[in-house]
What we know:
The protein has about 260 residues and is an alpha/beta fold. It folds into two domains: about 80 residues, Alpha-Beta Plaits (2-Layer Sandwich); about 170 residues, Rossmann fold (3-Layer(aba) Sandwich). It has nine helices and twelve strands. It has an eight-stranded mixed sheet, sandwiched between helices. The relative contact order is 0.13. The C terminus is likely disordered.
Amino acid sequence: MEKKEWYLEYEIVSNRPGLLGDISSLLGMLAINIVTINGIDQGRRGLLILAKSDEQIVRLESILKTMDTIRLIKLREPKLRDRMAVRHGRYIERDADDKKTFRFVRTELGLLVDYMAELFKQEGHKLIGIRGMPRVGKTESVVAASVCANKRWLFVSSTLLKQTIRNQLIEDEYNADNLFIIDGIVSTRRANERHWQLVREIMRMPAVKVVEHPDIFVQNTEYTMDDFDYIIELRSNHDEEITYDIIHQDHLFTDSDFGGFDF
Length: 263
């Protein structure tokens, strides 16, 4: 029987010497292999483990619940957040009310790129929105994650190098393995109907689409926030407020001002 992967997380109640050895020995006696182990935040450990049967996991759970040195937090099939937590030693911050919104700060760009790369590797349609103030690292993170995921990225609208507004794709660009990047500000403020026909066509493709400034995008289109599978927020620091007040001032709509939204 093929082994199945599980995620185990526990909180240390009494951090006595040899505790990790006891957990490892218990897993060994149950013929459960450890794939990865790491500290998760303060006082917690996370492990990816391999078991041949669900019965092994049931036995493991019953024994762990009797131990007074630890408190079992999670024992389940691993989710992407679990894998990221073990890999990076911390959980990605998630909005308490909106479960599809995940928050990062600029010092966590490595974690953000790794997380987005895993999302980009998944097949089929996926619509991802990314919020953030100018030059915080949005576009560079999306491009870096595309490289990590071995995806070809295409700017449908952007101000990365110069203002880009695509009205059509060439034949080899109509590929579901490509990743399409749309700047919500540029598309809604500067584009024509031909551009929007292309955007709608891309939206129907079974591919990954990333929309920068999704709030502006949905204000001016038929799409809604419910259409997004994930929303990523990137800030310079935890206290920074993401606002778009500047773009509502028409006299500021110049090429140089849009250039301020390139990252």
